[in-house]
TrEMBL record:
Regions annotated as coiled coil: none
Keywords: ATP-binding, Nucleotide-binding
GO biological process, one term: regulation of DNA-templated transcription
Domain HTH luxR-type: start-end pairs: 889-954
GO-annotated molecular function: adenylate cyclase activity; ATP binding; DNA binding
Gene source species: Lentzea aerocolonigenes (Lechevalieria aerocolonigenes)
GO cellular component: cytoplasm
Name of the protein described by the UniProt record: HTH luxR-type domain-containing protein
Length: 957
């Protein structure tokens, strides 16, 4: 018996039955049932360390295999987050029966050296070639679809919180796409541990059935102890055990293991434990046992805990042991219940690994990671494997370590994890490397930081520029630096950086100098634009190449031509070249992406603009690129606005503005301003003037705005608001200042901002008919040069309104004809209202009714209350209102408009929203918008309050 007691106690890896977890196991098995009926199912188990998640996953995996599922599993660790597609590799590597295990190598690269193929050597000098992660996700999805054709599939991922960003993104992609596959995805996540990507985990929770696993209750613990000990424990022992462990199954098994001997009283050891026996005490107990066994065993266990080796040979080498010695040690650890498999160096649970790791000094852990990195480098392992150990040590290892970090960072950056990539590059800069390579590291670091910290990005890029002589690299780095400075609101610094590099390259590389001049003109407007007018022929050739550099240049060309109002065909072509590989391919440069999509809007390619802006939003959400997310929503808001979907335009603009505020962007940041501008335009055309006034309040109605492209656009929007508020003179000043800026910057084209049209209307309101006609005709000439249907139609509309009378009809008829087949519904509705109204007042009543009917339908689709109000002011027979109501007198002190007063009186009389809409010949949505404004102005919340107010004031109709 004494000999038996000296042997290490085994921690049972197979608990006595699943009595306490039968409900949770049933939830997992139900996912298999769903998958067998050709429907996907996702289950996410959440619980604390040691709650039994791993055991449950192992059990359900056995059930799935017995049912004929193709089971693929993966177990993560805290080092996996540093290696792209780590979980995906594990899943497909476990599918050895089919061709998928080999096919995945060609998609993400699984063999040794795979990361090197996409590393610095294969890139250009600055490493700016972008990958398309969505293509990788799609190809992996096709592999899963192929698996599903052969039978149901079960994917199991344990400890999801440590999964790498790329794998999490793919799992989310799979959950969205696999709507009809026989697929069960079973996941576990440890609560209280900050995941590698909280946003991706949160998105998975949307698709998954969540199963929470807690500790055993006292009753469950009693049953568990009875099954473990084969006898009934004493109630006092159960109570003490529950108090000490909190019902944690893993700790319970460890504490109850010694009491399984007949000579030990039930729960005796537990009663002698402290009042609270947690995981820290468990780790100390394990280490004490290891010390009693052997110092070699302690060294091996510590090596495995810190290094987390995939192969036993690596653990043996780092621990300074022979392979047979290490294999014997693992078997002994397995007999103790600490290792899951006698042939694999992996702990049964992270609690043991963490406890052992915490017992090692920082210097010792540092040395273990350094030796591991060196061993992996010597064996030709992947850069990502080497880098994650180099990252964990402060020891200087040399150029090879910096190379591995650079290559791993490059892959992470292409996969959308800029933050981790930057941390790798900062670590690489701590190595002693040649000056040329140090410059490359600084450039790549600045590129990564530009997505989340433009100030630091500018600092590192400036350091890199000091040593760069090669013209092509100078071009790339200067472009990056100017972008970082611009996004940080440092416009003069950005202009200075571009001008300095232009001067440096003027003679040695005129074609690159011309590209920087183009970037300067498009990004940072200046009144000295004439000196940069000439664009060499080389630029016109370069942007058609279609590679990464050519796509970025094409975006500049597209924006420049549309700014100038020249050559719509070439501007459209350049925008399409810029986006030829999708919005994802140009997202690395948010300014260029926005320039390309904005050029599509200006050239009336609204369907394409909607597609690419939506693609950018989706990918930005997956890659956590918040800036691109904001710009994408601002762009899509603009597209919806032109298409007449005003409510959707407001939604996108509010999403963009909310994200910009959560990012703490300065109110002068381009993304913040563009979001405000998009929201302002949509609100005004919806008729929500009060909300528009509140939006613009922080910058004021009269304050001067900075000289930048985005602030000038906002200046025009503010001018429209001032006109709606009755300040025609102030509106005119804003529009004329907008025009002065654009003309001085060499951007007279109407596609940029139709400021002349808005200024002409302000002139008309002020009685300046001659000035209005002059501006309208000037815009018409420029619109003919640009030849875009919306620009032409708007200019003709303005000429007609400025001309007035019967002479306006030909212009309005031509405007309607030009825009008849265009997608710009809001502008078409505006033209139809003016045309129908003019016809009605000049005796063409039959045609007027037809056009006003179309105008009403279009205005209702758009939800434009200003247009609907204009229609409501016409005689009833003009717009087909047979039961129109007489005008309702409105008192001078009433806060309501005449139309709002009419809606309020009908609602107060008891009419439903539908009845009001029918009587006023407007849409139900229009009535709801009116009621929102009425309630806000009157300070009420319910229809009964409105009725009481009308009865008390005698305002009933």
């Amino acid at each position: 018996m004494a000999q038996q007691r000296n042997e290490p106690h085994k921690i049972s890896s197979d608990p006595p039955g699943f009595v306490q977890r039968s409900k949770e196991l049933g939830r997992l098995v139900s996912a298999l049932n769903t998958a067998e009926s050709n429907r996907p199912a996702v289950v996410l188990m959440e619980g604390t360390t040691g709650a039994g998640k791993t055991t449950l996953l192992g059990e359900v995996a056995d059930v799935a295999r017995a049912r004929g599922f193709q089971v693929a599993d993966a177990v993560t660790s805290n080092l996996d987050r540093f290696m792209s597609f780590s979980v995906v590799r594990q899943l497909f590597e476990s599918l050895t029966a089919g061709p998928e295990a080999g096919a995945v190598k060609s998609i993400i690269g699984v063999g040794p050296g795979a990361a090197d193929q996409s590393g610095a050597g294969a890139q250009n000098a600055a490493g700016f070639d972008e990958l398309a992660p969505h293509q990788t996700y799609h190809e992996l999805y096709r592999l899963v679809s192929g698996l599903a054709d052969r039978g149901p599939v079960c994917f199991i991922v344990d400890d999801l919180q440590w999964a790498d960003v790329s794998s999490l993104q793919w799992l989310n992609y799979l959950m969205r796409r696999a709507t009809k596959l026989p697929l069960a995805v079973l996941l576990s996540c440890t609560t209280g541990v900050y995941p590698a990507d909280p946003l991706q985990i949160a998105e998975m929770q949307i698709y998954a059935t969540r199963v929470r696993i807690g500790g055993f209750t006292a009753e469950e613990l009693s049953r568990f102890a009875e099954l473990t000990l084969s006898r009934q424990p004493e109630p006092e022992a159960v109570k003490a055990c529950h108090t000490a462990t909190g019902g944690n199954p893993l700790v319970l098994r460890y504490l109850l293991a010694p009491t399984r001997e007949p000579s030990s009283p039930p729960g005796a050891d537990v009663l002698e434990t402290p009042d609270s026996y947690g995981l820290e005490e468990l780790g100390e107990s394990v280490l004490a046992q290891l010390h009693r066994e052997s110092e070699h065993l302690v060294r091996l266990a510590r090596t495995i805990a810190v290094v987390e080796p995939a192969e036993l040979a690596l653990a043996a080498g780092v621990a300074g042991m022979t392979l047979p010695e290490a294999a014997d040690g693992v078997r002994r650890l397995a007999r103790m219940g600490l290792m899951a498999d006698a042939d694999k160096p992996a702990f049964t649970h992270s609690v043991f690994k963490d406890a052992i790791t915490n017992s090692i000094t920082r210097a010792a852990r540092d040395d273990l990671h350094a030796r591991t990195a060196a061993s992996l480098h010597a064996s030709g392992a992947r850069a990502a494997l080497i880098a994650r150990h180099v990252q964990c040590t402060a020891s200087k290892l040399g150029r090879w370590a910096a190379d591995a970090l650079y290559q791993a960072a490059d892959a992470l950056l292409n996969d959308g994890d800029a933050t981790t990539a930057a941390s790798f590059l900062i670590r690489a800069l701590q190595e002693d490397v040649p000056a040329e390579f140090r410059t490359r590291l600084l450039v790549k670091l600045g590129h990564a930081e530009s997505f989340f910290d433009p100030y630091q990005a500018a600092t590192h890029l400036k350091q890199a520029l000091e040593t760069i002589e090669e013209p092509e690299l100078l071009l790339d780095v200067t472009s990056l630096l100017s972008r970082a400075l611009y996004l940080d609101g440092r416009y003069e610094d950005a202009r200075g950086a571009l001008s300095e590099s232009i001067a440096r390259m003027c003679a040695s590389a005129p074609e690159f100098s011309a590209q920087l001049r183009l970037a300067l003109r498009v990004t940072l407007p200046t009144e000295q634009f004439e000196e940069h007018d000439a664009v060499p022929d080389r630029v016109a050739v370069d942007w058609r190449r279609g590679d990464a550099r050519g796509r970025g240049l094409a975006a500049l060309v597209a924006e420049d031509l549309s700014n100038r109002g020249e050559d719509l065909t070439t501007s459209r072509e350049a925008a399409l070249v810029a986006l030829s590989a999708g919005a994802v391919s140009i997202m690395q440069d948010p300014q260029r992406m926005m320039a390309a999509i904005n050029s599509l809007i200006r050239t009336n390619e609204l369907e394409l603009a909607l597609r690419y802006s939506s693609e950018a939003i989706l990918e930005a959400h997956r890659q956590k690129q918040d800036l691109v997310f904001v710009l994408g929503h601002a762009l899509r808001s603009r597209v919806h606005f032109h298409c007449g979907a005003l409510a959707q335009s407001v939604v996108d603009a509010r999403l963009a503005l909310a994200k910009a505020q959560r990012m703490n962007l300065h109110h002068r940041h381009p993304a913040h301003v563009w979001s405000m501008d998009a929201l302002l335009s949509a609100l005004l055309h919806l008729g929500d003037v009060e909300a528009a006034r509140e939006l613009i309040e922080p910058i004021g109605l009269t304050s001067p705005l900075p000289d930048s492209w985005h602030h000038t656009s906002l200046l025009q929007g503010r001018g429209q608001l001032r006109m709606r508020l009755g300040d025609d003179a102030g509106a005119l000043r804003d529009h004329l200042e907008c025009g002065r800026r654009l003309k001085s910057w060499g951007a007279p084209g109407p596609a940029v901002l139709p400021w002349r049209s808005y200024a002409a209307i302000a002139h008309l309101h002020l009685g300046h008919s001659l000035e209005a006609v002059q501006l309208a005709l000037e815009e018409l000439e420029l619109a003919k040069k640009w030849a875009s249907a919306p620009s032409l139609a708007r200019a003709m509309l303005t000429v007609g309104m400025a001309t007035g009378g019967a002479a306006a009809l030909p212009w309005l008829m031509e405007a309607e004809h030009v825009l008849r087949n265009a997608q710009t519904l809001l502008l078409r509705a505006t033209i139809l209202v003016e045309l129908g109204t003019t016809r009605w007042h000049h005796g063409q009543q039959k045609l007027a009714r037809e056009e006003l009917a179309q105008a009403k339908a279009a205005a209702e689709r758009c939800g434009s209350l200003p247009l609907l109000t204009k229609l409501a002011a016409l005689p009833p027979e003009a717009v087909g209102r047979s039961d129109a109501l007489p005008a309702v007198p409105v008192s001078a002190d009433s806060p309501l408009t005449p139309q709002e007063h009419r809606v309020a009186s009908l609602v107060a009389a008891g009419d439903s929203n539908d009845e009001v809409a029918r009587k006023l010949s407007v849409s139900r949505r229009a009535v709801e918008f009116h009621l929102t404004h009425i309630y806000r102005k009157l300070g009420i919340q319910r229809r009964t309050q409105l009725a009481a107010m009308f009865y008390s004031t005698g305002s009933r109709r």
